[in-house]
Each structure stands twice: as C-alpha cells, then as structure tokens.
Write a structure and sequence with these properties.
The protein is α+β, with helices and mostly antiparallel strands and about 425 residues long. The chain has 13 helices and seven strands. The relative contact order is 0.08.
Length: about 425
C-alpha cells in the first residue's frame, strides 16, 4: 500500500523533500486551480445543473485523491438496475450522497482560490529571487522599490541572502503545498465517500422490505388456500354430488324405458339446470378468489379504468376523481391496492357511507388520496394490509401517510406519493375518471 501525503509529511525532511510527494502535491494544487476556474465559469451559465455537475465532480475526485497516495474509493450511489436506467438521475438526486458532492463542488472553488494564492505567492517569490540575483550580477548598485518605502539595493554581497530565500521558499512551499493538498483531498474523500451508516440503513431497509414481502406473500397464499378450501372446493363437491344424482336419474330412465319414473324428463332437466347453476356459482367463487391477485383491466387499460371497475363491485359507494395518464406498472399497482385496502377497511371497521379517491400527477409524483367518512381508524398492528402498502411505497421511493380527521368531515385519510419520473402533470381540462 502506497504512503499517503500525511505519511510523507511525517518522514525526515531530506526524505520528504527529495521524494515525489512535493511534486505530486504541486501538480494536485495546479489542477485544483484550473479545475476551480473551469467550474466557476461553467456554473455562471448552468446554475440549475449543479446537482448533475456534482455527480461528475464526485466521480473525478474519488480518483484524483490517488495522486496523493490515498486508496481508491467506492461510489456512494446505489447501483441502478438495468430496468430503471431511464430513471437514474431522479434516483440519485434523492440520495444524500449527491448533495454531499454538491458540497464537494463548492469546496473545490474555495480550495482552488487558496491554491491560487499559495502557488502564486511561491512563484512570485522564486521569480523575484532569480531576477534579483541576475540583476545583482549584471547591474550592481541598482535600487529596486519593492512596495511603498521598502526598497532593495542590488549588490553582489546580497546574493547569498537571495539564494537562501530561494531555497527556503522551495522548502516551505513544498510543505505548505503538501498540507493544503492533503487537507483538500481529505475533505473531498469525506464528502464523496460512501457512509457506513447509509449502507447499513439501506441493508436494513431492504431486509425489512424482503421480510414484509415474504410475510405478505405467505399471508396471501394462506388466504387463497382458505378461500379455495372453504368456497370453491365445497361448491365443486356439491356439483359432483348433483352430477351423481343426474347419473342416477339417467340410469333410472334408461332402466325404466322412460316410463312412470319420469315420463316427460322434467326431473332430469331440473337436475341438469341445478348442476349448471352450481357450476356457475363455483366459477364465480373462483373468479372472486383470484380477482385480488392482479386485475387484468389494470394491465390493459390503466389505473383509471381499473378503479372504475373496482367501484362497480365495491361494498361501499366509491367516488373517483382520477386524472392520470398510463404510468409505470409498479406505481399503478401500488395505487390500486391502496384503494382496495381502503375499501376493505371502510367496509369492515368504519361503517363508511362513501369513499372518495383523488389521483393526480404532481411534479413527477403520483399522489393518491383516499378518504372515507366512517368513524373507524386504521391500525397497522391489526394486519399486514397498511404495513404492506407502506413497504410497497417505500420500495418505489415513495411514502404513505395515514391520518384520522375530525370535525364536520371526520374519517380516515390515506395518502400515497410515488415518484413517476418523466411523467408531467396532466391538464385539468382532461376528462377525469369518475
């Protein structure tokens, strides 16, 4: 592992001064000056693009600090999956790391100014020393005014003083350059590096989301098994029994030759009709069981049409004010299940007479609010419904809030916000669903 600039500064002076680190530090500061001037000119004309430029600065600075012996750094940004590449900018803009890199961008401007002052002062002193030595040897006796009343007489006797000043400037400048470069690099590494706490929080969030998803899937599997066992299975058993009766009726007709047992076949027709009714009932039960998995109309026609279809069979009257375009499937699914969960809670717990749904796209966010006028409340501890919706919203980078209102318009209000980058707000003149 190579020594950092701080390790080099702790070495004996002769090893530090005759090593490569003073030159690396000088190159680092010269680049900082040019880098700061470049960003200063660019930011004047592209002020609104500062977060985007900060991403570029962070990428370069994590590599540039290797000039001073620091090890390479990993990117603090989340790895965007291939399916979400079109949303990479909106994802990174929500990360704290991006805004730390904005701080790195502005710190570059400050350190660039300091580097300009330091290196400029060193170069000025060195140039003056060389110039005065040359003039002392060629124009002896000449008096040069430095500033104000301070002057310098150019004589050969003062040449050693100029040489000592030249060497001292090189030595002091080497250390000063290394300290300033090391301070800038250390600050940039602090701003542009991943945070252990952020990584741990992300791991915990993903672990919790996975556990919640597993619980929700297990609960859904048990619900389907229960519905199939208690509903469809019993109706299919009854259908089998009716078909067995039809078989006996038909066998009796054949045996009796359509005689006195059922002369006009009405009993057999009745049995067939009953069996057909049982088959229809079993089919309806099966449809009701699987309908909650994912409605086909949501995939085919979008959120507005799916909510209209849901309102047609809702146990509580549903008023829709939905004005959204076709959105990404995860966002539409989250909004749909928010409404279904709210309807279920309203029917079971609040005795609501009306459920109102409002859906809009505002500032590239899908905002869905569901309000019921019942007197109940939503408790996440009673089941996985609301908790699962919260986890679903969080997995999409959104939020879910649950509140209870009082007064003339009392009831339960659920509000979900889900990012939908690239989708602008629709005109209010569009025909809403409802």
């Amino acid at each position: 592992m190579s020594a950092t600039v701080w390790d080099e500064l702790r070495r004996p002076p002769h090893r530090f001064l005759f090593g490569a680190m003073p030159w690396r530090s000088l190159g680092y500061l010269v680049f900082s000056v040019v880098w700061a001037l470049f960003w200063l000119l660019l930011l004047v004309t592209t002020l609104l693009l500062i977060p985007l430029w900060a991403l570029v600065v962070g990428t370069i600075e994590r590599r540039r600090t290797r000039w001073l012996g620091f090890p390479p750094q990993q990117s603090p940004h989340v790895r965007v999956p291939r399916s979400e590449r079109r949303h990479w900018l909106s994802i990174w803009l929500l990360e704290p790391a991006t805004w730390r890199e904005v701080g790195a961008l502005f710190s570059n401007l400050v350190f660039g100014l300091l580097a300009l002052l330091l290196v400029g002062t060193e170069i000025t002193i060195l140039v003056l020393c060389v110039t005065f030595v040359w003039l002392s040897l060629t124009e002896t006796g000449r008096v040069v005014t430095l500033w104000g009343d301070v002057s310098w007489a150019l004589t050969p006797e003062k040449t050693p003083i100029l040489v000592i000043a030249f060497i001292a400037t090189l030595v002091v400048g080497a250390y000063a350059n290394a300290v300033l470069a090391g301070a800038q690099a250390s600050l940039l590494r602090l701003l542009c590096a991943p945070r252990d706490a952020e990584l741990q929080a992300r791991v915990e969030q993903l672990t919790a989301a996975r556990a919640t998803l597993v619980r929700a899937l297990d609960e859904e599997r048990r619900r389907i098994e229960r519905d199939l066992h208690d509903g469809v299975q019993q109706e299919l058993v009854a259908l089998g029994a009716r078909l067995a009766i039809i078989e006996l009726e038909a066998d009796a007709l054949v045996t009796a030759g359509a005689g006195p047992v059922d002369p006009d076949g009405s009993a057999l027709l009745h049995a067939v009709g009953t069996a057909r009714g049982a088959a229809d009932a079993a089919l309806d039960s099966l449809r009701r069981t699987v309908r909650g998995l994912h409605p086909a109309v949501l995939s085919d026609r979008g959120l507005a049409a799916a909510l209209q279809e849901l309102g047609g069979r809702a146990p509580v009257p549903l008023h829709l004010d939905v004005d959204v375009p076709r959105l990404p499937a995860p966002a539409e699914t989250a909004a749909y299940y928010l409404v279904t969960e709210a309807l279920s809670n309203a029917a079971k717990h609040s005795a609501a007479s009306l459920v109102t749904v409002d859906a809009r796209v505002e500032l590239e966010e899908l905002v869905v609010t569901v309000f019921d006028d019942g007197g109940g409340a939503v408790s996440e501890g009673r089941g996985t419904g609301v908790a699962g919706l919260r986890e679903r919203a969080a997995s999409l980078g959104g939020t879910l809030t649950v509140s209870t209102t009082s007064g003339r318009r009392s009831g339960v209000l659920l509000s979900m916000r889900v990012p939908v980058p690239g989708y602008a707000e629709r005109s209010r003149d569009a025909n809403p669903a409802g």
